[in-house]
Design a protein that fits this description.
Helix 7 packs across helix 9, helix 8 packs across helix 9 and helix 12 packs across helix 13. This protein has one domain: TIM Barrel, CATH 3.20.20.210. The strands form 2 sheets. Strands 1-4-5-6-7-8-9 form a 7-stranded parallel beta sheet. It has a two-stranded antiparallel sheet with strand order 2-3. It has 13 helices and 9 strands. The protein has 341 residues and is of the alpha/beta class. The structure holds coproporphyrinogen III. Coproporphyrinogen III binds next to loops. The site of coproporphyrinogen III (CP3) has 22 residues, from loops.
C-alpha cells in the first residue's frame, strides 16, 4: 500500500494499516528552513512564485514522514484576480476594505484561468516531485471567511464590522459571497485538474455566526462549492473551527471529511454528524508546546476518540510558530506506533 493510499483511503473511510497524519500549517514559521526562505522573499512573492511555493510545501515532508502535502498559498490568493490588493502583516490587511454595496458591485468576477494560476502551477510541480508518494491537498477559504477579511480589513477578535455589514447590507453581502463562491469553484477545479488529490475548504470564521445566520448566509455557498466539486471525484474536506454551536448544520455542507477543532471531542463530533463522514483532527496545537508524557497521552486520547475507519490525524488548528520540531516527531512516532493494525 503506498502512502498515498493511506490518506485517500482514510478520507473514503476504507480500512488502512495505520492512521494517516498531516498537520495544518505544516509549512510555516516553526520550520527554520521556512524562516530562511522568508528572509529572501516576502510572503506574497513566495505564494505567487510556483518554484518557491513548491519548495515551501516540500520542506515539512523532507523532515517528517507526513502522509500528505498541502500546496503553499493563502486563502486570500484568488482576490488579486477580483481586483483586490491584499498585504500580509503577518495576517491579511486591506488598504481599502469593502464597506458598501458599490464596492461589492465593483468586484471583478474573473474567468476560470485568471484565478491565482500560480497555485495550480505549484500543484503541478509538487505532483511531479512527489511522484505519487503522497497526495497534494489543494485548498481555498470559504466565502464567509474570505469576506470577513475583505469587509473588516484585517484579522479581528470578533469581526464586528463584518457582522454589522451582514445585518445592514444583507443583499450586498449575498452578492459578495456569491462572487467569492463562483471564483472559489474555478480556483478549486483548477487545483484538481493540476493534480490535487483532495481539497480542503477553510471556514475559519464560520463560528462567528449564530446558527440561523450561518444557515441562511454562509452554508448555501459552501454547499454550492462542494457540490460543484463532486464530479471531480476527489475527497472534499470542510473545516469550520469553533462551530460546535452550529450543531449538525455542517453535516449538510456536502463534505466527505469534516475537520474538527480541539475544543470538541471526536466522539461528540461523530455523535452530532454521524457515520457518513471521515473525521480530521484534533489535537490542541498548544500540546506541542508542552512536550513530554502529556503530549504522548494526548495523541493517544485523540486516537481513542476517533472512528475505526475514516480518521485523519491532524491538529485541531494550525501549528503554532514556536512549536519545537521534536513535538512533531513525537506525534508522528506515537500515531505510527499506536494506530498500526
Ligand atoms: O502548510 C500550510 O498549511 C501552508 C499554507 C497555508 C497558509 N495559510 C500559509 C500562511 C494555509 C492552508 C493557509 C490558510 C489560511 N490563511 C487560513 C485558514 C487556516 C486557519 O488557520 O484558520 C487563514 C484564516 C489565512 C489568513 C492568514 N494568512 C492569516 C490569519 C495569516 C497570519 C497567520 C499567522 O500565523 O500569523 C496568514 C499569513 C500566512 N499564511 C503565513 C503562512 C505560512 C505566515 C506568513 C509569513 O511567513 O509571515
Amino acid at each position: 500500500m503506498s502512502t498515498e493510499d493511506l490518506f485517500l483511503r482514510a478520507c473514503r473511510r476504507e480500512p488502512v494499516k495505520r492512521t494517516p497524519v498531516w498537520i495544518m500549517r505544516q509549512a510555516g514559521r516553526y520550520l527554520p528552513e521556512y524562516r530562511a526562505l522568508r528572509q529572501r522573499v516576502d510572503f506574497r512573492t513566495l505564494c505567487s512564485t510556483p518554484d518557491l511555493a513548491a519548495e515551501a510545501s516540500l520542506q515539512p515532508l523532507r523532515r517528517f514522514p507526513l502522509d500528505a502535502a498541502i500546496v503553499f498559498s493563502d486563502i486570500m490568493a484568488p482576490l488579486q484576480s477580483m481586483g483586490v490588493e491584499v498585504d500580509f502583516a503577518p495576517g491579511p490587511v486591506l488598504a481599502k476594505p469593502l464597506r458598501d454595496r458599490a464596492s461589492v458591485e465593483a468586484l471583478r468576477e474573473p474567468a476560470p484561468e485568471e484565478v491565482a494560476p500560480a497555485t495550480a502551477e505549484t500543484i503541478r510541480i509538487l505532483t511531479r516531485e512527489l511522484g505519487g508518494k503522497v497526495p497534494v491537498i489543494g485548498f481555498a477559504g470559504a466565502p464567509l471567511t474570505v469576506a470577513a477579511y475583505l469587509v473588516e480589513g484585517k484579522g479581528s477578535k470578533d469581526f464586528s464590522r463584518f457582522r454589522a455589514f451582514l445585518r445592514a447590507e444583507p443583499e450586498a453581502a449575498d452578492l459578495l459571497l456569491g462572487k467569492l463562491a463562483r471564483t472559489t469553484v474555478h480556483y478549486l477545479r483548477a487545483q484538481v485538474e493540476a493534480g490535487a488529490g483532495a481539497v480542503q475548504l477553510f471556514d475559519t470564521w464560520a463560528g462567528l455566526l449564530d446558527p440561523a445566520t450561518y444557515s441562511e448566509r454562509a452554508l448555501p455557498h459552501v454547499q454550492a462549492i462542494l457540490s460543484a466539486l463532486s464530479s471531480s471525484g476527489v475527497p472534499r474536506i470542510y473545516f469550520a473551527p469553533g462551530s460546535a454551536h452550529l450543531g449538525d448544520l455542517p453535516s449538510s455542507s456536502g463534505a466527505d471529511v469534516l475537520g474538527v477543532d480541539w475544543r470538541t471531542d471526536l466522539r461528540e463530533a461523530r455523535r452530532v454528524h454521524g457515520d457518513g463522514f471521515a473525521y480530521q483532527g484534533n489535537l490542541d496545537p498548544a500540546w506541542l508546546l508542552a512536550p513530554g508524557k502529556g503530549l504522548e497521552e494526548a495523541v493517544c486520547s485523540v486516537l481513542d476518540a476517533a472512528p475505526d475507519r475514516g480518521h485523519i490525524f491532524n491538529l485541531g488548528h494550525g501549528i503554532l510558530p514556536d512549536t519545537p520540531l521534536e513535538s512533531v516527531e513525537t506525534i508522528l512516532r506515537v500515531v505510527h506506533d499506536r494506530s498500526a493494525s
